[in-house]
Queue: 3 jobs
Job 1
Amino acid sequence: MHQIDFYHLSSSDFIKPAVQIAEKALLHGKKTLILVPENKVSDVSVYLWSEKTDSFLAHGMKGEDVAEFSSIWLSSSSEENPISATYVILTNGILLDELAGFERVFNLFDGQEELAKEKARNQWRNWSANTHNTCRYFTQTQTGGWQHTA
């Protein structure tokens, strides 16, 4: 059984919502793979280290030998999952063909971009057609929160 949550962002800023989800996953003892375009990996890494003034979210990424100590891994490919994460966060239209190994999928997409919305719709249709999947849909509120709509 897979739970797949679609997050309709009100802007193209996916970093803050992705980090919030990863942080909540940590509180539940879950490892998280954050999939981002290759040119955004370092931006997300910097945000994870500097977002809070009193702490940081330890993580790893390609080229680092820290998988055994990391609960969050940054990558541009779902095949690169050295921490055996069971949660995966998809950003910027990154597609995931195979759900095996993941119990939860968080699909963050830019609701202002037509191509991103179409990709999300296609994934919703494909994944919700499988009775082993539970799909939910959230829209971002003006205050940055989330409203469950489907």
Job 2
Amino acid sequence: MMQKTLTGLDVLISQGFDSMRGKRIGLVTHSAAVDSRFRNSVDIFHDVPIELVTVFGPEHGLHGQAQDLIGVSEEESKSATLVVSLYGSTEASLHPTQEQLAGLDILVIDMQDVGARFYTFQATMLYCMQVALPMGISVMVLDRPNPLGGQRIEGPMLCPGFHSFVGAYPLAVRHGMTMGELALMYRDQLQLGPGELTVVPCQGLRESDYFEATGAPWVLPSPNMPTVDTAVVYPGQCLFEGTNLSEGRGTTRPFEICGAPWIDANRLAKQMNEQQIAGAVFRPVWFRPTFQKHAGQDCGGVQIHVLDRDAYRPVRASLALLMAMRAQNVERFAWRTEVYEFVENPIAIDLLFGSSRERIAIENGVPWQTIAKEWEAEESAFEQLRKPYKCPHDFDSC
């Protein structure tokens, strides 16, 4: 398929990096930030006549090698450029320090997001903006497509008291925004400055496009996000991280597969398919994770096969699935209570939903449809909040 969408990196290359000449540059990036020829942003920045001073790597590391929740130490780069980790062993490591940014003229941010509030690259971008812009350092965001497109939003909003690295700003779970759009919203809503924010937009991107329609190269942005199909289910399936159910890590289809040793796969698939979840079929599976939850144990569960992405609502579907799996054995099911993304309290499921409301409703036996009904007002409110920041790029539909 011919690439019809140019990413912000592609556009910057076409402009010859003119805006950066004579400037001291910092770059926040990772291995998924490639141009149309699959060249990584760090290599490109090294090969052009600009002064790249510092490279910052987000969660999973600059090279994308680290699993979730694994701290990454500073790495040696192929040149004298300093490489700084923005995901270390402490919560403080998530923010660049003023000392690390001192002397930079422009902080460039180029990361591939997947369109869910709890996917942490947009939080890293926000934390960088919160330090750099008040210092008077310019921030340049090289935009990339949201793999899920920009037309649909879904899920509850983040509530006060539940902020964390997986909920850095009040967004709907599936927010339908690009990194550039989010940056513009963060700057205005949080009144960040006096440094200047520039977004280098994608060219030829339509709001309705899923990633494949852009023709842009897909590189997995984290170890358990191998395909766009994974990203499609992720806004719901990541909720399983807040439980003792396997979200499929340690299998070849993370997030699309889920289960546990005590789950009756056939009964679960039958129950889910009888509910006629829009856009999806649930197939019984048995699997043995190679790492993380239930490693080495045979698990029953389901694989989600999304047949109609436009009809599928991942957060609602995964809420129904989580509740069905919990109901099979309430005694063996448990919420995750270990420290999650540097936070002990609230617990992980509350951080992921953005409040304790959903967990309490699940425990009280409230039907999933009733729980999801309460999201509708919040989804409408977020639609209005994001509207001024939609289509600042070169969307054909604007």
Job 3
Amino acid sequence: MGAQGLKGEVKVKTFTHQPDGLSRYAVLHARDGRNFTITAFRSAKPGEAVIAFAEVRDRTAAEGLRGTELFVARDALPPAEDDEFYHADLIGLEARDSEGRMLGKIAAIHNFGASDVIELVRADGDQVHLAFTRETVPHIHIADGYIVVAVPEDDEDNDHVE
């Protein structure tokens, strides 16, 4: 997030299905507990928006928010459809191979531009990044607390996940 203009507006990167979807939530919150009430919203370039908050009245205050992550309250989100999920639902789940052996836990889902990448943390602390595709993650069992990861067979040692 960064300042935009002189009146306290901020430019944000959106992670909603449709950028203007963010404006429907009215109040966003930061990790430190601060709430920000949306008073104006306009789309910018793809994946970005310019927002005015009631609590941010000038450029100095907007500049103070640089790097702040804003979130929507979970209960304000619509329920996930069948075969859909929120990334937050995956964080902390076990990653298992097709035989049920634990490979690690999901630490994060990233998107570096090309597609989603799942970050696993193994028991030894090593991090593994895998393409988050149906081929790599064929089964997701949120209620049971795990996903199934198809370990690439062309890797002779398979030491990148086990």
